[in-house]
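Recap for those who missed Tuesday's class. We walked through two folding examples back to back. For each one, the amino acid string is listed first and its predicted structure tokens come directly after. Nothing is annotated here on purpose, so try labeling regions yourself before you check the end of the notes.
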Amino acid sequence: MKEQPVDSISLTIPAKPEYVGIVRLTLSGIANRMGFNYDDIEDLKLAVSEACTNAVDHAYTGGDGEIDICVRILEDRIEVEVVDRGNSFNVDDIEERTGPIRFEPSMNSLRERGLGIYLMKTLMDEVDIKGDNGVIVTMTKYLRKNEVELHVQSPASYPYR
């Protein structure tokens, strides 16, 4: 049984690049309110930007479509779902093409490599991508309250002499 979120926020934007910033700002505000630290908020913003930009660039022809974003707030994490109903793709094929970057004679000759997927998986704790009748990207970031304090020695314990 799936855990029920404390709160859920939904947002629908046109599949156009100028609206991706609205999603970033919204997510940043939600994550800040939850108590995420600065670095985790930046990771969340970059990951959601990649997911939305992939939908803008690849899902629809001519920008005619919408992207649905659902942010679920849970006690220990945030889940972000980015959904388009455009062109699907095979995630395994994209990941297989992603590999070490090779320098080509011209930057124009670099093929699309799926680096957005790599970034999402690197920045988030969990990423699930389904590509059937559109694409659904679900990303999870866990809240790490007091993580540093648990591993750092108190300044009072340092020998100052």
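Example two. Treat it independently of the first, because the proteins are unrelated.
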Amino acid sequence: MDEGAFCSEVVIWISVREFDMGSGATSSQEFAAVRKRLEELASAVLEQSRTLRSTFGASDGKRLEVLARIIAKDAEVDSLELSLDDLTVAFMNYRAPLGRDLRYAIGAIDVAAGLERVGDCVRSIARNMIDIGVMSDEMPLIWGVLKDLSEKSNLILEKAVAALLSGDVKAAESIPPLDNVVDALQDQAHDMVLKSLRGVSGNLDPETGLLVVACANKFESIADIACHIAETVVYIVQGRRIRHGQAPVLSKAGENKEEDGSKS
């Protein structure tokens, strides 16, 4: 068994022990354990994203060393996600929470899956950047767009995690519109790669071009997932959905319907 798999098994075993019903733990203590593990997972993923962002200003040797560390640390993120999932499912099975506690448990599982995907995106970008090398001298414009993508996607993730940990609905609702900036940068990266490959500007080789596009797509995915986390915060706190501009309303017959903001 490799080190990552061993750590995963240990964390999961600890999770089961924390929910041993014979231990005398109270419902509030078990809920606190779920919340703490979610905070640990969010912090670990955010640190990975911050570290990736820092590599754009690092020297060649240091940069490769940091990227390798990012790849290795992804196993820790996976273990935390599995542990949180076990903790939350056990809490729901044993305590049958209602209201906001139930929404928090459902949201925690959803957010954990999203954070784990962010970790996978960061790991994938790190691997691609090792293969890309430093483009700051040969292709400074494309390198600059990748740097902007890293900064903007990390900013959205920072805001989403802050809203999650504080339960700030107003802050969470302000996050999804920020994704437009990342979408525009992704389109810009695609366009620059195509122009270079077609000989319009630059001399980017096809393999590097594909790696750049892959990185841009992963940065955009990070921003998308962060926006979804922000939307989940609104659901947890207020029990309403804001995905795609939807807001649940109660019909005259007492049935829940979805409304896109327009009046029929």
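Answers for example two:
Residues 113 and 141 are 34 Å apart (CA to CA).
Strands lie at 247-250, 256-259.
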